[in-house]
């Protein structure tokens, strides 16, 4: 062949636009709100771990459930067990928080939100990021995001425990405001967990022939519907777990005290 | 019904250029591309812009309007206030040829690097039997009009020219997902998605989905499912173990 | 100025469905093939086709077969079609569609997993293979990806993706070059850089599409400037049927910026009805006699058809396009139109919102985004828009070869297949069937050549001068001339024609020719739209003259040609084709030519009663003789 398209060197350049973005809307608002929201959750989480008033019969604060060491208050122990034993003296929440925490940390939605709001990579669409280099999730540590599905399995268990806690409260104090807060929280946490992208993949997303697996396809369809609301569920369940946890602690401390508390 | 709007349009050749000011008439029901055409017909006959169908079906008139990647033909003037200055620039990620026209050959190169549809050797034309539910996912991705705005907005290459060599962009990662989910495709695409096409660069910040004029859920329906498929293949020890045992049992 | 030179076996001009299919065929036959297109690869106007590709696969109704499809096509074209083309088309369309599937196309499916087929105006059975309402996109993408697949194959074997097939995107051809009688090359320019380019090739396949940009209200994009038609004329080939232009009945009429953009016929196929400003379903008043027994006469029957097609006749909204377009035109003229000068197309009261979104996703999207109209809640305003030209290069049905050795044509730029009116869905299948045939024809022609024709330096020099001329002149703005041409054609040679108006148009075209010679374009050669338009004007004016001259000669109304002064269809005229040619490119001549009679085994596929409506007494007597024999 004689030649290809003529290539003047000058053609290789992008349009020189000196500003980071030409966007005129308030593109910084969403990452700012996300930053504040996620930060408040982190701050609250740290406080909740060191706070000891996590149980008031029949409520257990979600951040401390399941309570697995013998340092846990008697009624707070899951099925009365204490599999971790006596040696463990640190706050009980620390034992398990890594699981739901890891689930959220590796969640596809949370990744988007903190990559944007904390790491500014990018802060918003068509806004230049401040980093000179970018390698994505290809190498350590971010390659670890790929273990999301294991956290999903763990999150299922935690979700079940929270549901169990809510049922216990329902049995023992059906008219308590705390009971209903725990019930709502358990529902939101579990729907959030089920709406996970990994869950969607596991139900049937990995298959190429839905028609040969009608049951799995139905499960996938259901999870897909939830998945479309993954972001909303992520925020709703984050706030519900904070509110529920805070409420139980306030009741435990006696700060909230009325007959139907 | 008609008013004079203030426009700033990037004009120049081969990278060098600047925003030029125009005042131009706008009538009811018009879109940005109409205004660009009016500029061509009345004030700047050599103003370069790519366009074709003017109905949001061909994906030619991709540009950046007030900093956002948009199709010129699908951006109604009524979405702006009358006193607003509207800035129109070429897509930032690709080299500019002239004015609003960019060199999008990157996309065609990447398209070529994705191995084509590979059906089983023994199925003849006319013998294909596929259920609607089995083709729907790939059909969504085939709605793509190749406006290349997803590749344009993706910060992986928009902000890091050096990544272009190793990253195919949302458009072609989605093409890989389309083929990987095709009921009759037998090629192995998961390994290459990660190692050759740079799926690992994607940090799912979803700008591709935000700008898609066809409203394809690129991130949720193509990129993340593809990432999960890659995890199956490369990072999931349980699946790996299962495969090992299964294969051993078979052999 | 250096002229870039390339050597190929086959050069395909146009990268729409027909062009790509032709190129794929030529490459599969081992020919080194170039695809030259004005837009980017994959942006061709084929993406706009919505309804589907008609192919008698019989997936939905097993009674369908090529003979029924052939009959529908001939009926739709008012028996003016090149019957051999209609025959080949009906026979080969299913294979061409199935082949796409093997190349990765994903059509909508039937319950048993076959390609689903939908109803469409003029087709007796559900016949259109489709993907929602974006079938054209699927077709172009599939062919584009097939080209890429072939390039990958070449890369494997030769280490070069472009060893055997290369796309020259954003490149316009302005002249075909000849060595004596034979095609020897094509000359053009890169839109991007303005650099000139010469293709040294013994075979050229024209697949440039239509001529809609000569009209104001059109569904066609800027590319449709009749380049292929004009290139063929200038190279000495002939055009036929140029008077037949299809006005799609339902284009958007509001807002002005999207005027002309199509509203797919599927809206009507799926239950949409046409109403005038009085709320009346007026189509029942416009069923022509030839169709009386095929269409419902009451709203009740028409409505029942959507659910029970076996026992009811279809609603008149699904009449062939020309009938619907004329009916809408008549309603608007009678003062019963919508506020913006169309009529109402309503699907919102006929189907639940969810169903509309599912069946007509891109229509919903198009109206929402372009016009801010929610078609699930309110009716659309629609009116006729210039859509498709039935006329084009006169070609041999089997090979796509034009009169000029080495010149081939396929798709909209070729003429004959659709007669006086094209059925919806027949164009996508036309592209595939005749794209392939033209590619194969060109390959065979190249194989049979004793020696490669040569490009003469003088021809190149004059093509170069012609291409660069507008840049050197400081003449009139080409946009002005273009607008005047569009207005003239739209108003005087539009959907309804009168002898005096067409004659007036011809006078204007004469004057415009003069002005085209003097237009100038400022600016540089780099991506200069003013310059590009100045060059396209030559083609538009030439083709418009063909249309107007043929429209003036044909004194009857048939399909895409309606003469106010000759409202009836004349069996005498059915036997005549109007052939357009040009001596030197400065003007055109139109002469009559007799249509060859249909082959016996084909004509006997029709009922005598039906033929009676179209044929002369003399032809009927012949038919009776044939019928008796068989």
TrEMBL record, chain A:
Keywords: Membrane, Transmembrane, Transmembrane helix. The chain crosses the membrane at residues 27-50, 87-110, 150-171, 177-196. It comes from the Bacteria. This is Integral membrane protein.
TrEMBL record, chain B:
Its cofactor is [2Fe-2S] cluster; [3Fe-4S] cluster; [4Fe-4S] cluster. GO terms for cellular component: plasma membrane. Pathway: Carbohydrate metabolism; tricarboxylic acid cycle. GO terms for molecular function: 2 iron, 2 sulfur cluster binding; 4 iron, 4 sulfur cluster binding; electron transfer activity; metal ion binding; oxidoreductase activity. Keywords: 2Fe-2S, 4Fe-4S, Iron, Iron-sulfur, Metal-binding, Oxidoreductase. InterPro entries: 2Fe-2S_ferredoxin-like_sf, 2Fe-2S_ferredoxin-type, 2Fe2S_fd_BS, 4Fe4S_Fe-S-bd, Beta-grasp_dom_sf, Helical_ferredxn, SDH/FRD_Iron-Sulfur, Succ_DH/fum_Rdtase_Fe-S. Residues 5-92 form the 2Fe-2S ferredoxin-type domain. NCBIfam families: dhsB, PRK12386.1. Belongs to the succinate dehydrogenase/fumarate reductase iron-sulfur protein family. This is Succinate dehydrogenase / fumarate reductase iron-sulfur subunit.
From TrEMBL, chain C:
One of its GO terms (molecular function) is steroid dehydrogenase activity, acting on the CH-CH group of donors. Residues 482-589 form the Fumarate reductase/succinate dehydrogenase flavoprotein-like C-terminal domain. The active site is at residue 321. Keywords: FAD, Flavoprotein, Oxidoreductase. Its cofactor is FAD. InterPro entries: FAD-dep_OxRdtase_2_FAD-bd, FAD/NAD-bd_sf, Fum_R/Succ_DH_flav-like_C_sf, Fum_Rdtase/Succ_DH_flav-like_C, SdhA/FrdA/AprA, Succ_DH/fumarate_Rdtase_cat_sf. SUPFAM superfamilies: FAD/NAD(P)-binding domain, Succinate dehydrogenase/fumarate reductase flavoprotein C-terminal domain, Succinate dehydrogenase/fumarate reductase flavoprotein, catalytic domain. Pfam families: FAD_binding_2, Succ_DH_flav_C. Residues 9-428 form the FAD-dependent oxidoreductase 2 FAD-binding domain. PANTHER family: SUCCINATE DEHYDROGENASE 2 FLAVOPROTEIN SUBUNIT (PTHR11632), SUCCINATE DEHYDROGENASE [UBIQUINONE] FLAVOPROTEIN SUBUNIT, MITOCHONDRIAL (PTHR11632:SF51). NCBIfam families: PRK07803.1. This is Succinate dehydrogenase / fumarate reductase flavoprotein subunit. It comes from Nonomuraea wenchangensis.
């Amino acid at each position: 062949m004689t030649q290809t398209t003529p290539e003047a060197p000058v053609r290789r350049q992008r349009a020189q636009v000196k500003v980071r973005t030409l966007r005129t809307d308030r593109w910084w608002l969403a990452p700012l709100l996300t930053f504040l929201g996620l930060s408040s959750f982190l701050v609250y989480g740290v406080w909740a771990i060191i706070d000891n008033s996590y149980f008031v019969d029949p409520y257990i604060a979600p951040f401390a459930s399941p309570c697995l060491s013998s340092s846990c208050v008697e009624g707070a122990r899951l099925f009365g067990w204490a599999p971790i034993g006596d040696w463990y003296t640190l706050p009980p929440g620390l034992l398990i928080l890594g699981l739901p925490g890891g689930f959220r940390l590796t969640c596809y939605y949370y990744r988007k939100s903190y990559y944007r709001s904390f790491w500014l990579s990018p802060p918003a669409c068509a806004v230049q990021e401040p980093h000179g280099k970018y390698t994505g999730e290809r190498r350590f540590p971010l390659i670890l995001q790929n273990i999301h599905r294991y956290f999903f399995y763990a999150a299922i268990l935690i979700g079940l425990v929270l549901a169990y806690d809510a049922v216990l409260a329902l049995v023992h104090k059906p008219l308590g405001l705390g009971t209903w807060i725990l019930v709502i929280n358990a529902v939101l946490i579990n729907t959030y967990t089920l709406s996970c992208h990994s869950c969607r993949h596991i139900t049937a997303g990995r298959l190429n022939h839905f028609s040969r697996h009608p049951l799995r396809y139905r499960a996938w369809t259901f999870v897909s519907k939830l998945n479309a609301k993954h972001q909303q569920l992520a925020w709703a369940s984050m706030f519900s777990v904070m509110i529920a946890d805070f409420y139980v602690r306030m009741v435990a401390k006696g700060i909230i005290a009325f007959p139907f508390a | 019904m008609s008013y004079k709007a203030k426009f700033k349009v990037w004009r120049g050749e081969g990278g060098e250029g600047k925003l030029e000011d125009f005042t131009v008439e706008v009538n009811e029901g018009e879109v940005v591309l109409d205004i660009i055409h009016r500029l061509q017909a009345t004030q700047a006959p050599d103003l370069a812009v790519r366009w074709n169908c003017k109905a949001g079906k061909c994906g030619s008139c991709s540009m950046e309007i007030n900093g956002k990647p948009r199709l010129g033909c699908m951006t109604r003037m009524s979405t702006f206030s009358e006193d607003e200055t509207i800035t129109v620039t070429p897509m930032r990620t690709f080299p500019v040829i002239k004015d609003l026209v960019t060199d999008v050959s990157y996309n065609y190169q990447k398209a070529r690097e994705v191995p084509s549809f590979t059906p089983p050797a023994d199925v003849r034309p006319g013998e294909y039997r596929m259920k609607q539910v089995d083709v729907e996912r790939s059909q969504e991705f085939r709605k793509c009009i190749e406006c290349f705005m997803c590749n344009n907005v993706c910060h992986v290459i928009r902000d890091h020219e050096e990544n272009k060599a190793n990253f195919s962009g949302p458009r072609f990662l989605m093409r890989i997902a389309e083929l990987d989910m095709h009921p009759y495709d037998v090629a192995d695409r998961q390994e290459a998605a990660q190692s050759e096409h740079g799926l690992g660069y994607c940090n799912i910040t979803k700008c591709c989905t935000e700008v898609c004029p066809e409203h394809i859920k690129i991130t949720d329906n193509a990129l993340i499912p593809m990432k999960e498929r890659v995890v199956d293949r490369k990072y999931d020890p349980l699946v790996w173990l299962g495969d090992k045992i299964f294969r051993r049992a078979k052999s | 100025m250096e002229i870039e030179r390339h050597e190929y076996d086959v050069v395909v001009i146009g990268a729409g469905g027909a062009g790509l299919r032709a190129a794929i065929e030529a490459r599969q036959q081992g020919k080194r093939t170039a695809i030259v297109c004005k837009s980017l690869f994959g942006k061709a106007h084929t993406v706009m086709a919505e309804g589907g590709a008609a192919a008698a696969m019989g997936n939905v109704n097993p009674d369908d077969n090529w003979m029924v499809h052939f009959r529908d096509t001939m009926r739709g074209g008012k028996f003016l079609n090149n019957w051999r083309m209609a025959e080949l088309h009906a026979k080969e369309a299913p294979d061409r569609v199935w082949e796409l599937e093997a190349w990765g196309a994903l059509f909508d499916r039937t319950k048993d997993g076959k390609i689903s087929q939908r109803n469409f105006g003029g087709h007796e059975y559900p016949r259109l293979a489709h993907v929602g309402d974006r079938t054209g996109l699927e077709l172009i993408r599939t062919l584009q990806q097939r080209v890429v697949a072939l390039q990958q194959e070449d890369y494997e074997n030769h280490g070069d993706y472009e060893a055997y097939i290369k796309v020259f995107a954003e490149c316009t051809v302005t002249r075909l070059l000849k060595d004596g009688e034979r095609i020897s090359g094509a000359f053009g320019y890169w839109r991007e850089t303005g650099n000139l380019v010469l293709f040294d090739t013994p075979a050229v396949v024209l697949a440039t599409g239509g001529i809609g940009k000569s009209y104001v209200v059109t569904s066609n994009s800027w590319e449709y400037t009749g380049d292929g038609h004009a290139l063929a004329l200038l190279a000495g080939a002939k055009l036929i049927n140029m008077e037949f232009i299809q006005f799609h009945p339902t284009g958007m009429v509001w807002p002005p910026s999207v005027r002309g953009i199509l509203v797919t016929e599927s809206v009507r196929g799926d239950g949409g009805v046409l109403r005038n400003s009085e709320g009346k379903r007026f189509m029942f008043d416009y069923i022509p006699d030839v169709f009386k027994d095929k269409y419902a006469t009451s709203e009740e029957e028409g409505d029942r058809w959507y659910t029970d097609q076996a026992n009811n006749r279809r609603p008149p909204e699904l009449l062939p396009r020309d009938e619907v377009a004329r009916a809408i035109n008549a309603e608007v003229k009678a003062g019963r139109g919508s506020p913006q000068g169309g009529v109402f197309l309503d699907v919102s009261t006929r189907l639940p919102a969810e169903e509309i979104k599912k069946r007509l996703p891109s229509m919903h999207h198009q109206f929402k985004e372009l016009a801010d109209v929610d078609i699930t809640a309110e009716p659309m305003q629609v009116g006729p828009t210039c859509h498709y030209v039935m006329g084009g290069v006169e070609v041999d049905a089997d090979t796509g070869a034009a009169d000029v050795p080495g010149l081939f044509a396929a798709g909209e730029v070729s003429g004959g297949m659709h007669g006086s009116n094209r059925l919806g869905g027949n164009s996508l299948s036309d592209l595939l069937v005749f794209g392939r045939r033209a590619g194969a024809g060109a390959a065979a022609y190249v194989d049979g050549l004793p020696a490669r024709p040569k490009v003469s330096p003088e021809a190149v020099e004059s093509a170069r001068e012609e291409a660069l001329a507008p840049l050197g002149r400081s003449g009139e703005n080409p946009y002005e001339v273009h607008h005047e041409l569009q207005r003239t054609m739209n108003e005087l040679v539009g959907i309804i024609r009168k002898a005096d108006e067409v004659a007036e148009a011809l006078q204007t075209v004469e004057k415009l020719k003069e002005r085209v010679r003097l237009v100038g374009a400022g600016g540089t050669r780099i991506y200069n739209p003013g310059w590009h338009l100045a060059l396209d004007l030559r083609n538009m004016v030439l083709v418009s003259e063909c249309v107007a001259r043929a429209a003036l000669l044909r004194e009857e109304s048939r399909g895409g040609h309606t003469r106010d002064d000759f409202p009836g269809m004349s069996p005498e005229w059915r036997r005549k084709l109007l052939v357009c040619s040009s001596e030197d490119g400065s003007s055109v001549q139109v002469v009559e030519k007799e249509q060859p009679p249909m082959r016996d085994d084909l004509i006997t596929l029709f009922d005598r009663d039906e033929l009676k409506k179209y044929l002369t007494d003399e032809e009927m007597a012949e038919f009776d003789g044939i019928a008796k024999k068989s």
